[in-house]
Every structure is written in C-alpha cells, then in structure tokens.
Amino acid sequence: MRWRLQNLPSFLLLELALFWCAPAAAKEVIHIGSGEWPPYISEDAPHFGPTSQIVTEAFALVDIDVEYHFHPWNRSFVLCLQGNLDATIAWEKTAEREPNFVFSEMPIITERTVFFYSKNNAQSLDEIWSPSKEPKLRIGGILGYNYGDKLDEAERKGLFAVRRSDSEMTSFRQLIKGHIDLFPSDLVVGLEILRKHFDAPERHQIRYLPEPLRIAKLYLIFSKKTPRHDWLKAQFDKGMQQLHDSGRLSNLQIDPNLSPARISAH
After folding, report:
1. Where is the Solute-binding protein family 3/N-terminal domain (predicted)?
2. What is the model's pTM?
C-alpha cells in the first residue's frame, strides 16, 4: 500500500511543513581587516590575492565564510585592536602586540626583505654596514614600516640617512633618480611594483642584493576584544593544517625565486 500525504495525520503534516520551510543554519562568518600589498594581497586581485586565498580556503575547510574589509593598514590594525573586526591579515608577531592579539600557529607569509639599488651606484654588503662609510648612505623607507632591528639600530647610530616616503613607487623613483642609494623592500612586492609601474629601461637600472636584510614570518592575528577569538584561531589552525597536509598550501604560496620580473640579483 502506497502512502500519500493526505493519508498522514495532520500533526505529521505540520512537522514536515516546518522542516521543509525552516531556513538552513547560518554559516559562521569572520570579518578580517586588510590593506593593499600586491601581489600578496589586493582588493582588485582574484580572490583578493594568493595570501587572502590561503586564509579563505583554510576557513572554508572548517565551514567558516570570510569577509574582507580593506582599509589603510594602520586603520585595519586599530579596528581589530578595538574589537570592531575579528582579525587582521599579515602581521609580524611582536611582544608589543601579544597582550592584545592571538596569532595563528602557522605563518601565512614569509617576508624576505632585500636591498634594491641602482646599477649606476652599486653597493656591497661590506660597504653598506661599514661604520666608516663616507658620505653616509641614503636609505629609502616607507612611513610606518618596520624593517627590523638591524636597520633600526643602524639608523639610531647615525650610520644611514633615512629618507621615508609614502609609497614604494615613490622610493623606487627616488632610487632611479639617484636621490637615495638603497631601498629595502620585500622582494616579491618590490619586483611586482617594478613590473607594473615602471617601463623596461627603468627596470633595467635596478638591481637587488640577494642576501636578505631580514626574514619575517607574518600571521593572521585575532583581536582579544572579540569573544570568539580563541575559537576562531583554533578553527583557522585546523584548516591551515589541512591545507598543509594536502599540499594545497605550498601551491598557493608565492615563491620569490619564480618571479617573472626581469630584475637581476647582484
């Protein structure tokens, strides 16, 4: 005997109707502050850049959606610090930040900072760090950027004359024009800026020293002001481990040795 809906008791029909009409449970959403740092991270890039894609895919593996909020970097940091955002992407672990944030177990980027210079004004590492170097080298820098303890200490001792600007593009222009002698930048970021914003004759003038000024691991950091921070960190760590174990993580990460930019290391 075949059952039809009209053969069911009315209370069962009501329960079935409620079941079919009930909305699916809403997925968890994390709100992440970000900024522009191409090619790693960009609002205009597919998936907001490969580093953002790593974070998105790690959370997707644990059934969490990601919403990115793009601001100037300092603004994203402050919004996260205040608890207005759950997390912010690509920050170094420091003692000053640890009271206010928890850090992902795995880094999402390994930043490799090198010195760029003009081929018409070549510098060796021995010359750069020589305390007797005269005249003092003019080092470019970006306002608000941290280039590590070694460069900070040299600046405090007066080894360099540091000239800070508002962008990498400005500093590379100064380098090409001979207004500065060296410009430290993440290798991948520097090569991308030269590729996108400078023509071939300009790029041909630029070289970089392959020995890194610093190597820094950058993390996804979670605000302790938000009640879910420990849970979100644990879920992200779980997703990152799955990405790592599957080999997907290494496929998404940028290898600076494979950069297509035609800039020489000397």
Report:
1. 36-253
2. 0.81
